[in-house]
Recover the amino acids of this structure.
DNA sequence: TTGAAAGCGCTAACAC
DNA sequence: GTGTTAGCGCTTTCAA
């Protein structure tokens, strides 16, 4: 029942060659005669032998594994990112060790220590919430990068051996807000639920757009939702409460599609027609945007592209190449049914 | 920059003891004097030493890692499962190697081979789509189980060293359908997008409920959606097309929340009021059920509980204990706004 | 309570 | 083209 612990020695014996030769055919060395190769391959086949990755790792000091850290792998956006990363990495013959750390710094530190002790070849931090405000807090990243390359998906940090791949959230938000204004929405509410690095960039983009368009908006039109990330009814309730307090708005620009969904609910509750009387733009262009009725216009931040480039960059780094420390992509608004075209 | 490759030898030298002693304190052996232990601990601290997991693994033949296989880790349901599993496993000091295999048998086989060669201590197959119709196709699982315990989340297969943890989909669907009928829905459409093991169980439950209630439904009221798993608009379109062809129904029981969402869209398009004129029950009780407007009644299959028990069972097996080969939990209908109470 | 030494299974440098 | 052998870093008898 237990594995027969077939080793390279067994194969060498079976095939009547030395272990070095077995190792050679295992690693595809060209310096083996076809006849010998066949003998070895047959022996391997016959015994169902699989090389022991530990022994290999011990010698090579790598097991071709990348550590992926995310706050919550079940989050719609993060899950997609993990999915794409896993695919890309596997295509490059790397495995993924997944760690969900939650949002606590301490957990993150220990997760990284653990990954490093397991000798991962690189670490990917998925989501901008891994970047904190102070250098002191971010020291854990710099520290980790002394041992293995650290890749940041949607978060920027300048340090040796850390590489950032981001979407330009500032610009995307700027464009979304501008578009909303140009479409005739006068009283925009900005709805967000994260104050991470990219969360702040988004807000800045929003503010800049308003400023450049010469529209002002009271501070209570920047609404922070403090609840659970998936609590759409709660998000809608907060909007409704706002309305009851007399805060009015004819459009919502949301930092996440969940928030945008809640805005659609809000409008429906109030009997506002979308997009004629009320506009919504979401963020992430997730499946929620097409689940929504009407379907959400949403900012597509090119997650798959980001993941592809992140992996390519990591592979480059691992291969000893000089790779760009910062890579920035532009997002794009996916226009659907919750926004109007520009007024002419 | 690169790690200093501090080894147990360095520590032994620094602390002035043998490597055996260092190893002992590392593994918490009681047979070390406090004085010696302190010396060693200090040396470790001073040098920032971390044991090499490969070397350890080579000797122990385990690296405390579990392989998790899923068709698509970004699927709402699978992502949640993976999340819960990862948490539970980590709480038990195990790491997770994640493999997304898609739905092809061949990919699955090679993913498992790979995991085994990486010496995972166990394998978890997430989702009933890993179970095929024929023994021949399922041989890959039996085969894998000869080397490591294989856990099936929501899929049953009887074989040595394979353990199944499932939700009783038959019963859940039976109850949902019964309830719908009892609430006065007369013309139910069953909407599904998977013919996996659990997919079939669901359908059986649906059919039995109708039979026991003495209601018959034409075969075209069992609608299979063949498109992408996240294509809610496509799902709605199929329903609409059906309507145009003259197929009528006043309620939908869906094998997944996405499908249920599409039914809500369908009803809205037709101007049917929910739940007065049209009822919907979803499956999985995912975040979509609260995203929906009105919020979906949905079958909660207790995913988190399943994951907890799966992990507990796996830990038992790994610890050499005798564990149940099959564990079945009952689902539960989460009543929300898309169903009516029972008619009296 | 501690140390010496024999593996664990593989890779790669070096000889032939 | 093939074999020999010295590690890789750790755990674990077995002696002391």
């Amino acid at each position: 029942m237990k594995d027969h612990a077939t080793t390279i020695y067994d194969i060498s014996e079976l095939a009547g060659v030395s272990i070095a030769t077995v190792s050679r055919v295992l690693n595809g060395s060209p310096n083996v005669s076809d006849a010998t190769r066949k003998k070895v391959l047959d022996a391997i086949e016959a015994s169902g032998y699989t090389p022991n990755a530990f022994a290999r790792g011990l010698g090579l000091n790598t097991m071709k594994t990348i550590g992926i850290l995310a706050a919550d792998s079940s989050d719609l956006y993060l899950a997609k990112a993990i999915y794409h990363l896993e695919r890309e990495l596997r295509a490059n013959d790397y495995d993924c060790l997944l760690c969900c750390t939650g949002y606590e710094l301490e957990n993150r530190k220990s997760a990284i220590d653990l990954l490093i002790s397991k000798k991962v070849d690189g670490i990917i931090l998925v989501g901008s919430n891994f970047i904190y405000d102070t250098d002191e807090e971010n020291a854990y990243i710099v520290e980790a990068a002394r041992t293995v390359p650290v890749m940041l998906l949607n978060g920027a940090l300048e340090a040796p051996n850390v590489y950032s791949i981001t979407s330009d959230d500032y610009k995307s938000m700027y464009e979304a807000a501008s578009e909303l204004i140009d479409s005739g929405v006068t009283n925009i509410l900005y709805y967000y639920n994260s104050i991470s690095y990219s969360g702040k960039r988004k807000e800045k983009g929003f503010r800049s757009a308003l400023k450049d368009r010469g529209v002002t908006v009271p501070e209570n039109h920047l609404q922070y939702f403090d609840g659970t990330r998936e609590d759409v009814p709660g998000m809608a309730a907060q909007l409704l409460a706002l309305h009851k307090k007399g805060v009015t708005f004819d459009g919502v620009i949301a930092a996440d599609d969940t928030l945008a969904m809640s805005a659609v609910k809000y409008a429906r509750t109030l009997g506002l027609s979308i997009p004629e009387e009320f506009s919504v733009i979401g963020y992430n262009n997730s499946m929620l945007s097409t689940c929504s009725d009407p379907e959400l216009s949403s900012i597509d931040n090119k997650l798959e592209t980001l993941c592809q480039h992140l992996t390519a960059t990591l592979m480059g780094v691992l291969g000893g190449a000089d790779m760009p420390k910062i890579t920035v992509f532009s997002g794009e608004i996916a226009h659907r049914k919750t926004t109007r075209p520009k007024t002419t």
